[in-house]
Amino acid sequence: MAIDRTKLLFFIAGVGFACGVAGAWLAAERHPAQKPVFTPAANPFAQGIYATGMVESYQDNGANINLYPEVSGTVVAIPVKEGQRVTRGETLLQLDASVQAALAAQQQAQAEAARATLDELKAQPRPENLKVAAAQVAQAEAGLKTVQDQLDKLQRSFAVEPRSISREAMDDAVNAVRNAQAGLEVARRQYELTRAGAWAYDVRSEERQYAALSKAYAASAALLEKYTVRAPVDGVVLSIGASVGSYLTPQGVYATYTQGMAPAVVMGGGSERLAVRCYVDEILVQRLPAAARIKARMTIRGTDVSVPLQFVRVQPYVSPKVQLSSERTERVDVRVLPVLFSFVPPAGREIYLGQQVDVYIGTE
Questions:
Q1: Across the chain, what does the average pLDDT equal?
Q2: Which of 236, 271, 268, 232 is nearest to 88 (CA)?
Q3: How many CB atoms neighbour CB 166 within 10 A?
Q4: For residue 324, what pLDDT is reported?
Q5: Where are the alpha helices (DSSP H) in 161-234?
Q6: Cβ atoms 195, 125 nearer than 8 A
Q7: How many whole angstroms separate alpha carbon 177 and alpha carbon 172?
Q8: Which residue has the higher pLDDT, 23 or 104?
Q9: How many CA atoms lie within 13 A of 89 on its CB side?
């Protein structure tokens, strides 16, 4: 049976009217407003100024400690973890130093060899050598006496009967004596040379050689120590930018996300206090109270926690505003004055370094 189109249209219109009435009724119904998760930060001072702050570790001077290796190399060991407390001189990171260690060992051996040669020169004359030289003198003296006795016998025989000794035999005897006398002179001079010990020029030359090799070894040993990154102060390891197998340079380690160079290790002070570095807009700098009258409070974003701050110092240098990228090369038109405060973290509330907070600065 065919459906009447007119009735169908009226039915559809009626359904639409009913839906519209229901929607209007639902829209007009009042719902109670939800309570805010936290109360927005309010200015606690009558004439306080606002500044954005960043939580840092507390330092007597400067900010967090960025550590870079002084040499390039591959990381072979990281004996610490992020958040760990370390003492001054403790190893934070170790680079592969096999080549430098071999070079230092070689130069140490060369310096020790030069030292041994120098000691040998200073120890001269060696008693054994002196005894040998003295024996050679005695041998030369004995040889001279032998030929001298033979010459004396020939001369006595010649005096009794000239024809008993030939002229050739007499000349040979005389030459033998002269030769023996020369040999004795050589033996005596050799004895004196041995007894005198090493020549002063040779000793000085070897001393300089030993000094040069010792300094070369000291330089290699000092460079070898650079392959170990140590904690410069007592503190806390905030972040480690490298991992075992990473290649580090004096510029740090390549950060994949920022596509720039980052410190190998970042350390914070070991104090129980934390610091807040506030950036006061240059327009508000003239309203900054005198140092003796400054009071401030910070509010942790996303909470109702408000913490009193203690004034530390003003960094007297107005600089370009640091954006979230922390890139100083970023072009900005706003300049700010850094002001530093310190505080004790409230109990039961975790505050992380690098966290941004709202700060109000005023007077009592």
A1: 86
A2: 232
A3: 11
A4: 44
A5: 167-196, 200-225
A6: yes
A7: 9
A8: 104
A9: 0
Cβ count near 345 (within 10 Å): 13
- The rounded distance, in Å, linking the Cα atoms of 100 and 78 is 19
Rounded CA separation 229/231 (Å)? 7
Alpha-carbon distance of 324 to 332, in angstroms, equals: 12
All domains of the chain, ordered by start, with CATH? 49-58+271-362 (2.40.30.170), 74-95+227-268 (2.40.50.100), 125-197 (1.10.287.470)
Give the angle subtended at the CA of 263 by the CAs of 71 and 221, to the nearest 5°.
25
Entry field: residues in the chain: 364
Sheet with 265-269, edge to edge strand ranges: 65-67, 265-269, 235-240, 85-86
Distance CA 92, CA 359 (A): 34
How far lies 332's CA from each of 321, 327, 336, in Å? Answer: 7, 10, 11
Closest to 281 measured CA to CA, from 342, 363, 361, 364: 361
CA angle centred on 5, ends 4 and 7, rounded to 5°: 70
The pTM of the whole model exceeds 0.70: no
Token readout for 335 is 């300049």
Give CA–CA dist 52/360, Å, rounded.
Answer: 9
- Of 147, 226, 230, 237, nearest to 184 (Cα)? 147
Q: Are 267 and 235 in contact (CB under 8 A)?
A: yes
Cα separation of 205 and 209, whole Å?
A: 6
Strand partners, 118: none
Cα 283 to Cα 304: distance, rounded to the nearest angstrom: 28
pLDDT surpasses 60 at 214:
yes
